[in-house]
Amino acid sequence: MNDILDWGDYRIVLAIAEAGSLTGAAKPLSTSHPTLFRRINAVEKKIGVRLFERLRTGYRPTAAGEEIIATARRITELTRDTERRLAGADLRPSGHVRITTTDSLLFGLLAPALAGLRETEPDITLEINVSNDISDLAFREADIAIRPTSAPDPHLVGRKLGLIRQAVYAPSAMAADARARGDLHESPWIGPSRSLAYPALHGWMAAQGYNKLCRSWSDSVLGQHAAARAGAGIAVLPAYLAEADPALTRIGPMITALDVELWMLIHPDLRHTTRIRAVTDYLNRCSLIRQHLDAR
Prior knowledge:
Elements: H1 7-19, H2 22-26, H3 33-47, E1 52-55, E2 58-61, H4 63-91, E3 95-101, H5 103-115, H6 117-120, E4 124-130, H7 135-138, E5 144-148, E6 157-164, E7 166-171, H8 172-181, E8 189-192, H9 199-208, E9 214-218, H10 221-229, E10 235-238, H11 239-242, E11 248-251, E12 260-266, H12 274-285, H13 287-293
Parallel strand pairs: 3-4, 3-5, 8-9
Antiparallel strand pairs: 1-2, 5-12, 6-12, 7-10, 7-11
Helix pairs in contact: 1-4
């Protein structure tokens, strides 16, 4: 005979004890009086002792029944306490989140935005990896990737944060002369080196003939920005990086041909992880990011 009670057995005994009758216990258990009658008889047969005295006024627990009831109450309180703690933990995201992004996005856009995360999610710690390799997500070397792309990997889950706008920027001391001449072909340029995977900018520079005017090259957008700030020449830079920089002046309108979407991507297995969702939700609603991406 299987004399081991399961949680369903304890629930039945507890419900009958609290209701004082089968009819009263049947409703909270979503069952019927006859079914409950069979169940309590089966429980008593399973352990070989009578748990209730059947009286005209209802069911009264025996000494053995009182022990089962006490245990059932402890189990109920334990499960409720566990559920409360888990619910509380879910409301307070915590843990380690790894973000991978580019150097220019970190410097000009994400670092200021992520500084505010400390106030809203104090129990989350961040690890930032500067890289241009989206495969970081596939190999689980990062939890969240923030990348400029017009064709995000369909195997990843993503949100578009906005549109990266770009324009020609000159050192402020050089801008007046460049505007006066009205021809940027007479100015020194800073360009993307061949090792920088930036085909749209390479193509635009070549189409305009500016690639032949470059006097310095860099394999990072942040490097081009630093060179332009230092007065080395004119460069095409993202608005989020250069628009508010007092050392630089925009020349002409935004270059629509170089518009590119900014995506926040995660691996599908992480989409429901509380700490990951807390960070992605924060970044998605961050006004500082949208302000920089809405440059005109």
